[in-house]
Amino acid sequence: MKGKRRRPRTVLLVALALVAGLGATVPAHADDPAYPFRDPSLSVDARVSDLLSRLTLDEKISLLHQYEPAIPRLGIQSFRTGTEALHGVAWLGKAMVFPQAVGLASTWDPSLIRQVGSAVGDEARGFQQTRPAGWGLNLWAPVVNLLRDPRWGRNEEGYSEDPYLTGSISTAYGTGLTGGDPDHLKTAPTIKHFLANNNEVNRDTSTSELRPRVLKEYDEQAFKPAIEADAATGVMSSYNLVNGRPNTVNPALDDTVRTWSSQRLLNVTDAYAPGNLVGSQKYYGTQTEADAAALKAGIDSFTDNDTDSAPTTTAIKSALATGLLKESDVDKAAGDVLSVRVRLGEFDPGGGRYGSIDASVIDSPAHRALARKSATEAAVLLKNQSGALPLKKSAKDVAVVGPLADTLYTDWYSGSLPYAVTPAQGIAAKLGTSVAGSEGVDRIALKDAATGKYVTAGEGDTGAALKESADTGPTSQFDVFDWGSGIVTLRSAANGKYVGYNWSNFVNDQAQPNGWFVQQQFKLEEQTDGTYLLRYAGYETAESWWSNPVYLGPTGTDGTLGLVAKDQAAHYTKDVVRSGVDEAVAAVKGKDTAVVVVGSDPSINGREAHDRTDMALAPAQESLVRAVRKANPNTVVIVENSYPTTLGSLQKEVPALLWTTHAGQETGNALADLLYGDANPSGRLTQTWYRSESDLPSILDYDIIKSDRTYQYFKGQALYPFGYGLSYTSFRYGELKRTGDGYEIPVTNTGSRTGAEVVQLYTHQRTSRDKQPLKQLKSFQRVSLKPGETRTVRLKVRPSDLAHWDVTRSKWTVESGTYDVLVGSSSTDIRARTAWQVKAETIPPRDLSRVTRAENFDDYSAITLVDESKASGTAVSSTSDGAWLKFADTQLGKGAEEFSARLAGTAPGTVEVRLGSPTGTLAGTASFPGTASPYDYTTVTAKLSGAAKGRTDVYLVLSKDLRLSEFNLR
């Protein structure tokens, strides 16, 4: 289970000595190609060492900020870390937009995802001739944070709740981005966000508690594969804390991550995260201390203060002056940066292997075709009752309705769509005729109950500030889109633009909800008298900058609307000018087919800095589906969103359900191909779809083992299980047989259509010293079969793949025993199984006579995991009297006589040693007098009674507010 070791730092010294000899022969002109760092025939290490030797200390320090300045005397251009490329190149103008990351993973097709990554890498290179602001070849993608909780606001950015699938997809995408040769990089992808970042609420101050098994078996396994395969060139540290320590100074950035690769890695911080160490996290007193700690922990590049590098470079220089850093620390980080720049070909003639790529690759015909293919494979058929799908092309009288029927939404990390094919447009193109349509949303007018005046907007593209007036025409009418949780958006009927707050007024000038604060959100709050208050619900603004909710009401002498307190808010009557449901029902009546497109807006239904509290369809959308279904029994529903949806009882009521992410400019063509059978659905879910939010514990609970999270441990009945997805054809599985390095099974297409099956192999360990997953994905293969075709699918799984983390010895172990091997079409649809007898080892009883880390418990109550020191280590902290830790199956032998423990905390307390249970036999009590700080540890001891012998479970019972780092019984 060990990764590749990083190059020793002595390589740098040897290379410097080598280059010192070469330096005597180089020409005087600094930009001469004869300089060793410009010589592609030399090794990367030699070139980096040569360049480092030519830089002044100030120049080396300048490389440690996101915006690295040019060094004219050496002919070196500026460099920037951090071009967003999650599912296409973002924020640089028009570029191909592929399906959201969770959609890419839903293809379960690493070969396709590698092609997508390669296309994105090409398009990133396509901007290199013009180098627009924000461009660079260090790409911040992919996101590999595990989707353990579907309420995470950034669910769309990740791949799966499963580390093996995440590792497979991220490695494929990253390999495409790099080009596959770690010494000659097309781009330099940075995987994010390290580590255990799966909540947005209090994201810079909340701590993700990772007991060793969760850390080793789950969270680290999402990051390791891409780094180990040289499919990524570094990691981004995340905002959150892990076990009480900010990830910006997580020592695992060096001690763990760098052991996974023999290449030098470039680790970066998330934006503004270094400042958080002193600001919101209050972990260090000065930025000098904070930046020094981050550099020593393994950060190479600081993303802070936007383009202003001065605060960072000043802090680093101060740390050097005060002895917090050595110049060798700067050399190490600067060398990591330069290693990536060398491998990108920056110093090669003509920019190296990829230096000639130009803008012609952007939005190329090949990339358009790839976007359509990936959008097609990403969709998952959730339900297909009585063969409702595929539709017949001969039945051309079709209506396409719903709030997402004729629009495409992009997310925060999307590029700008070069063109757009909506679902309605794709279906119309497929049929070669027009289709009936309706967004199915109400058009309303809001009349001030006190004055009789209407809320009115402006005409033309720029709109105008909302005000109250006597106008009753289109300027006083708004289309109301319901996004759930009471949130609505208002689109002016006068110009088709959304109303948003611009820090001064409310103006109808936005093409779609957008921006960091998403200021186009409102709530219509009904009052007891039947009137409504119009509440402003823009992200963060109302919640953080006003102490109470804020509402709209006339504030100007001309009736212009502004923000007011609730008791000053205008009371409006809501006049329905046009019923969205009635219009949609009229559109679908008598049609051969009704297609309803519902879902989410990525700017509203959870996003960066905002988690979801509600995974259901918006009530108005659910009502629309029911009304359409009642009006036309031939109703097909497309759910277009970025996360699992609870769907209520809707999934029982409609004959066909098709799910897709927001899939880019080819969404409409892909959906039409699927609906009409030109493509066979083959996507599979990468997350468990729960029936209710009540199936989930707190979003801040990261212990998937104890809280039974994800398909690995969840014991309830899912709405749709992990790995699920239907097809228009059927597949038969044959006999499962063991081969040399795995299993093989024949799979036959028994239907009448060509289709792709995703054959999934899971294992389950029948008996173990430790709680084991109910099942765990170990291998999969996507196979396309023609009708009647049989193919033998080979699934690789070795005994070493069965290892789990043994907390008694802090090592990976494979236990001897029987393992169930389960192969099927999803985690619950198992078609073949066998038993695998594995001879390995038996975990011996615990030996607590050795010093034992407290974090290596087997179970716990009222315990949190905290930082032992600011630099390293994890301790446990008790949150109440009677908190306990269990150390199972301990061999005390003929008797332990003394208990010794390292404790910290400002309050005195006790640690009891009990046997068998938290209230079992008391073997001894250690008294703790308290220390000066939570990081000031002292050793306490206690004599043990004669009961402390034999083989038993040992419990340590702690009083409140103690920190325990390690202990032993001897």
UniProtKB/TrEMBL annotation:
<dbReference type="Pfam" id="PF01915">
    <property type="entry name" value="Glyco_hydro_3_C"/>
</dbReference>
<protein>
    <submittedName>
        <fullName>Glycoside hydrolase family 3 C-terminal domain-containing protein</fullName>
    </submittedName>
</protein>
<dbReference type="InterPro" id="IPR008979">
    <property type="entry name" value="Galactose-bd-like_sf"/>
</dbReference>
<dbReference type="Pfam" id="PF03422">
    <property type="entry name" value="CBM_6"/>
</dbReference>
<feature type="domain" description="CBM6">
    <location>
        <begin position="849"/>
        <end position="970"/>
    </location>
</feature>
<dbReference type="InterPro" id="IPR044993">
    <property type="entry name" value="BXL"/>
</dbReference>
<dbReference type="InterPro" id="IPR026891">
    <property type="entry name" value="Fn3-like"/>
</dbReference>
<dbReference type="GO" id="GO:0016787">
    <property type="term" value="F:hydrolase activity"/>
</dbReference>
<dbReference type="InterPro" id="IPR001764">
    <property type="entry name" value="Glyco_hydro_3_N"/>
</dbReference>
<dbReference type="GO" id="GO:0004519">
    <property type="term" value="F:endonuclease activity"/>
</dbReference>
<keyword id="KW-0378">Hydrolase</keyword>
<dbReference type="Pfam" id="PF00933">
    <property type="entry name" value="Glyco_hydro_3"/>
</dbReference>
<dbReference type="InterPro" id="IPR017853">
    <property type="entry name" value="GH"/>
</dbReference>
<keyword id="KW-0540">Nuclease</keyword>
<dbReference type="Pfam" id="PF14310">
    <property type="entry name" value="Fn3-like"/>
</dbReference>
<dbReference type="InterPro" id="IPR006584">
    <property type="entry name" value="Cellulose-bd_IV"/>
</dbReference>
<keyword id="KW-0732">Signal</keyword>
<comment type="similarity">
    <text>Belongs to the glycosyl hydrolase 3 family.</text>
</comment>
<dbReference type="InterPro" id="IPR036962">
    <property type="entry name" value="Glyco_hydro_3_N_sf"/>
</dbReference>
<dbReference type="InterPro" id="IPR013783">
    <property type="entry name" value="Ig-like_fold"/>
</dbReference>
<feature type="signal peptide">
    <location>
        <begin position="1"/>
        <end position="30"/>
    </location>
</feature>
<dbReference type="InterPro" id="IPR005084">
    <property type="entry name" value="CBM6"/>
</dbReference>
<dbReference type="InterPro" id="IPR008999">
    <property type="entry name" value="Actin-crosslinking"/>
</dbReference>
<keyword id="KW-0255">Endonuclease</keyword>
<dbReference type="InterPro" id="IPR036881">
    <property type="entry name" value="Glyco_hydro_3_C_sf"/>
</dbReference>
<dbReference type="InterPro" id="IPR002772">
    <property type="entry name" value="Glyco_hydro_3_C"/>
</dbReference>
